[in-house]
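In this notebook, the sequence line spells out the residues, with the fold written below as integer tokens. This is how one looks.
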Amino acid sequence: MTFKATVFGATASLLAFGTALAADLPSYKAPPPPPPPPAVYDWSGYHFGVSGGYAGGSASYLSSIYGINPVTYNSLGSSYGTSGFIVGVQSGVNWQFANNVVVGYESDYNYMGVNSNDSGNWGGMALNSNLRWFGAERLRLGYAFGRFLPYITGGLAYGQLHTNGVYNAGGILFPTSSSNWQAGWTVGAGVEYGLFNNISVKAEYLYTSLQGNYGSSVGYNAATLNPVAFRTYIGNGYDTHIARVGVNYSFKSLGALIGMPQLGL
């Protein structure tokens, strides 16, 4: 046997042994890559929605009564409760910062059935005062816990107040009818939860303060119906507590489309 044949045989034996050994070893595969992190819920974007709930509080008025014959003057105060419902629409915009602080602006406009028809304070003669239309322009400040967003809010409020009926002051009847728009303020807090990428639900409380209605009227003797007095009245606070729930649809892609900035703090 030649030297070359010996070397060739030894090499072939080593290769065969290595192949057999590799076949007996367990196969090894690289671990799969980790799953991508869950998408962070983004509150930035424009939104609009609807809401509804309960509203009620108290209304106070100051009356000045001037007698005609004899000439007299009397100042009276009155206060009564109000209650009813609220339903409306809202729209606004949010900016979410890198530290999860959310700053926003929201505008809402509502129809309200908030009124009082308390005849007990007026000697059996009904006087109704109600808040029919209500709106607010508010700032919002919150902190996002993912899909959960608690916030505080406050700003300008405005509304249309109506007063109708008869005011009875010691047997003098004052037919009353007035309607006024006026401005005030509102503060409150709420929570919003992102159900889906573009849909969220919210629960909100607002305290709203308006002045209350104002006007004047001639008073008539309840027995003779002769004019005997003149009355002026002015609101001394028309305060309303609002508790409502709502749903919003957000245009997050619209913010990116028009270049809404991604803010970082």
About this structure: Residues 45-246 form one domain.
